[in-house]
Amino acid sequence: MAGDERIRLFCGLQLPAGAVEVVATWQAEHLDGVRGRIVPPEHLHVTLAFLGSRPGDEVPAIAAALGEAAARAAPAELRPLRYRETRSVGMIVCEDRGGTATALAADLGERLERLGVYRREGRPWLPHLTVLRFREPPRLRPPLPELGNVRSVRCALYRSILGAGGARYEVLESLSLGGR
Residue 155 pairs with which residues in a beta bridge? Predict the structure, then answer.
C-alpha cells in the first residue's frame, strides 16, 4: 500500500469455522427476508478496535501492536447472551467468560492510543457479533444461535473496503492468541 493511500482498518477476533457455520445457518433461518443485509459468513468477527480511515504506511506499526497484544493474550471464550438492535445493526451480544477478550481489547486499545492511531470510546467495550445491517431496525426477537461457548484463538487486522453491496473485509494480518 502506498504510504499516503488511506484505508479503513479494524482489529477483531476471528471465529472458529464451526461457530461461523452455526451462525450462518441461524442467519438463514431467522434473518432471511428481513429488510437489511445479512453479514456474510466470511465477515463474521468480534471487533476489538475500529480505527477508521488511516494512512497505509501505518499498517506495519498497527500490525505490530496487534501482534504484541495477541502474544500476551489468552484464547477468548465467548457465549451468546442476547440479540440486540441498534439504529443500524443487529448483533449477538456475548459474555466474555474469563474476561480474556476484554483484557485483549483494553491492551490493544492502549497500544494503539500510544501510536496515535486510535481513541477508545468512553463506554466499556462490548463483545458482540454483528449479524445484520439495516437502515431501519426490523425489531426482531430471534432465538439465539445454539453456539454454546465459542473459543477464539486468533485475531486479525482487517481492511474494510466500502462498496455498493456493503463493506468487504480483507485480512491483512492474522495472529494466534498467546503467541501459539
Answer: 13, 175
